[in-house]
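Kindly inspect what follows.
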Amino acid sequence: MASRADNIASSLSLSNFSKATELKKRIWFTIGALIVFRFLSFVPLPGVDARILSELYSQTQGGILDLFNTFSGGSLSRMSLIALGVMPYITASIVVQLAASLHPALMALKKEGEAGRKKLNQYTRYGTVGLCAIQGYFLAVSLEAYGASSGLPAVVDPGILFRIGAVISLVGGTMFLLWLGEQITSRGIGNGVSLIIMAGIVAQMPTFASNLGQAYSAGDTGSLLIMFLIALIVAMILLICFFERAQRRLLIQYPKRATQRGMMQADRSHLPLKINTAGVIPPIFASSLLLLPLTITQFAGNSLQPDSTMGKVVVSLNQYLGHGKPLYMLFYAAGIIFFSFFYTAVVFNPEETAENLKKNGGFIPGIRPGKNTANYLDYVLTRVTVIGAAYLTAVCCIPEWFLAQTGLPLLFMGGTSLLIVVNVTVDTITQIQSHLLAHQYGDLIKKAKLKGRMR
């Protein structure tokens, strides 16, 4: 029989949304913050010639810069104040998570609860500032050198003052985005940093759709190809929604406890193991590692002679590690599978989970508490991760192969972008439903109080 909460959740409608004043304020705040993010993406760095930047960027397409540019909403191609986006924060948070799982001192700090979490978040921010400063400096130096070697000076007045100004501007832009994301999380709806990344990806979709329309008008793309593309996107979205919500539930039994009526009753619950425990981290890591050599060779290509040994190495790398090439697809799939198992082992500790169940008196029926439970959890998690890794590999490699065969520059259709957009959308809708559900419960409580007073 459905519970009272299930009945209320099934009756959620737009009429209830119009009455939820606090929810509407949160949504309007989130929209306003995302508009500020989009405005900032058009504010260029001081001392940069924006007209030459687009021409320089078009010469380095196909590398890791395309991935970062998609996540930042085109800010990198315009070299705006937020050109680095929130990727340094994502990198720093992953490094801190890995360190907290491997280093004993940070592992103890992780177990301290809210105080330990705040301390780890502080370390993550320090790491973000350091990464932003390093990436900003190398970005400014590369912009000066590459612009000078190509004969297109993108920097008006190169020198130490430009580098210092660029580093300060880029660090300030990224930290402002982090502050904006925290404001969205606390005063808006959804996870702020995730929404900023999703907004950057979605902001690129009109440009890609316009390019696709121009290719169709010019006769370069047929109607059947466009219909197949739309069908593939819909199928990928449905597949992502299914697997991201899929779980392997393990039954947890608790000992019998006395109730208020004096009866002994045993409690039951479930331990959910997600099919895709690693999330979007494996494809991001795998694509970043594969595209990094290609980006370096693109920057160094103009200063090398094609007949030299290094020039031949550069040509070979660009030839075999290009998008859609067999070697690239093989390494990409292998990287996704490796990072799926690696990151799952980092974020989920079977021994710690088994120890917590033992302390609370819980056990899996048929499995002894302690070491046997940890071995069983590891056994189930390994097999679940096999399915999750195969799903991630299919979602990321099929669009990559399709884009390579058709030559369509639709990075938003890539597996990583679709994973981020679908996951963030589902999480945001879930939070909206939770607010609506809480609002309806509040109305029920008010009605119950009124009836009590009337009696």
Observations:
- Residues 65 and 295 are 7 Å apart (CA to CA).
